[in-house]
Amino acid sequence: MRRAHLIQFVLVESMREGIAAYKVNHLVRCYRRVVEMIRTNRDRLVMVSVQGAVAPHVRKQAFRIDADGVPFVLPGVGGITYNVRVGDPAFGWAGDHVEPGVSTAADYDKRGDEKNRAYNILACIGNKARVISGDAKGAEGVVTGHHGGIEHVLVDFDDDAMEKLAIDDKILIRAYGQGLELLDYPEIRVFNVDPDLLDLIGLEQDGTRIRVGVAAVVPAVLMGSGIGSADVASGDYDITTTDKAEISRLGIDKLRFGDIVALQDCDNLYGRSYRQGAVSIGVVVHSDCRVAGHGPGVATIMTSAKPTIEPVIDDSANIGRYLNIGRYRK
Fold it and tell me: In the 8-state DSSP scheme, what is residue 92?
């Protein structure tokens, strides 16, 4: 009865104050989260510093070839992307693999070395970032994802900081989240997410399962580039978008940067693979792509090889709303 009374109170007060429906739904989830007390080991996690710098755009060749065999020349990964932010559509840009906000790397000339690997593995979505050099020194931001292949950590800053930032400006991140566990759900593994963000997402217990609000459910057949990777502690993998009709039918073409999505029958425990009944939860980190086998990138934050995660459609499930960043920044 305690939970029911609390939820009823939230609904009544929210309607009285004229709060938007998506905010009401999120408040309900958060209150449920508080009452149900999903236990974690957050008090045992280790917080460390990792440092990167604003990475430049890089390009191996002038042209790339799209899924229909047509060459194209478009902006892509790297740099400071001024007009594409968390909360914007992940589709429709005159770009390819566009990264919202600021792209960073520990060493962009040696992307595969140990220093950059550690930077990508330890920085978690929702972590606090701070500029420590250049005209934007002191500005604070939030990690919004990591992009595999190019090995970038993506960071959101406010407009003023974005205007002052320059290539090579140094970014210090308080890396915190790897090793996070749901103590009563050992079959569910958590990766790449700050525990404060996990609290804001508002997981709900439902017997032996947990329920997670997601903007979309993506079938395993659509997962492409990045599948087969040996681990999910960094990088992402793409929702393939060559079949436009199917993407539209499923509503995937409405996804936004920062949306939380469920990957159906996708086991990410020890790499990215197919397993019937498995469910993985991730965050959309980069835009749609024109190359075959590619599309919006999803960075994993939670996975289970068994059907112990129940995705629930919630149009407001976006880290921008929860963290007050990107297009949701006030």
Answer: S
The answer to whether 134 and 113 are in contact (CB under 8 A) is: no
Question: Strand 48-54 to strand 101-105: parallel, antiparallel, or no bridges (unpaired)?
Answer: antiparallel
Q: Mean pLDDT throughout 147-158?
A: 93
pLDDT, one tens digit per residue, over 273-314 is 999 999 999 999 998 998 898 999 999 999 999 999 999 999
- Of 127, 287, 117, 262, nearest in space to 193 by CA: 127
Burial class, 198, CB count within 10 angstroms (exposed 0-12 / middle 13-18 / buried 19+):
buried
**CB atoms inside a 10 Å sphere around CB 306:** 14
- Among candidate residues 125, 164, 146, 153, the one with its CA nearest the CA of residue 55: 153
DSSP string covering 207-241: TTEEEEEESEEEEGGGB-TTTT-S--SS--EEB--
Report d(CA 223, CA 273) in Å as an integer. Answer: 9
Burial of 122 (0-12, 13-18, 19+ CB in 10 A): buried
pTM of the model: 0.88
The whole-number pLDDT of residue 28 equals: 57
Centroid of chain to Cα 108: 22
Structure tokens at 252: 């995937």
Cα dihedral 201, 155, 102, 217 sign: negative
Phi/psi zone of residue 232: left (φ > 0), alpha (ψ -120 to 50 degrees), beta? alpha
CA dihedral 205, 314, 92, 248 (to 10 degrees): 100
DSSP 312: E
Q: Are 142 and 324 in contact (CB under 8 A)?
A: no
3-state secondary structure of 259: strand
**In contact, 175 and 50? CB cutoff 8 Å:** yes
